[in-house]
């Protein structure tokens, strides 16, 4: 509760400072509307079916992307973490692909599959895959070797060891990777919608608002909604993680 109150106090302070800076004329009201205007615009947009459709399109793409990233990243992390030779063999290609920003891949993806929902989902999967996979690999390294050796000695298959022994032990690490990747996926989806000129989505709404009638209150309102969604996703997953893994200190060891 104290953390929440401190966070709200900081937010209120920021909004008040923003309001004062604009009202005294330090920045232009045209290009930087005050929060009193932006928040009213947000409220109006929440009643606009077209804007709600954009939000739903963004969140649906985000949900699909994070689900696919989990489906790929967790098994890949378990496999690479349990087979050192395979991890060594793939290290070069993984470290080559990992730093590539999604903005550099947007033109290539647009040429190959177009600017539809598939493009933003694919790039969001690419961006959010790495924290999940690497935290899973790290979690594999933290498993007590006795557990693995005992399972092998009992004749348990590799698949059964990974699913019944390794996965439960690495669950806190996996969940932390998912929490980190969730906000990354949202950033990726909105960014691709913005850069690729998607027909639907928050990014599309923002780019249209900034190039059409140049309603900067709409631009900032769309940005505020995107930021709020990101905050709610992260906070929701953080609270869920604390309930599921109260005994774990994985958040302090997470790999971004």
Q: Can you offer a commentary on this structure?
A:
- It is a single chain.
- The protein is mainly α.
- The chain is 80% helix and 0% strand.
- The protein has ten helices and no strands.
- The two termini are 27 Å apart.
Number of strands: 0
Low-confidence stretches: none
Query: How confident is the prediction overall: mean pLDDT?
Result: 84
Distance between the termini: 27 Å
Helices and strands: which structural class?
A: mainly alpha
Q: How many helices does DSSP assign?
A: 10
Which H/E pattern describes the elements? HHHHHHHHHH
Family: Belongs to the binding-protein-dependent transport system permease family.
Domain ABC transmembrane type-1: 55-237
Protein name: ABC transporter permease
Pfam families: BPD_transp_1
Short description:
It contains ten helices and no strands. With 256 residues, it is mainly alpha-helical.
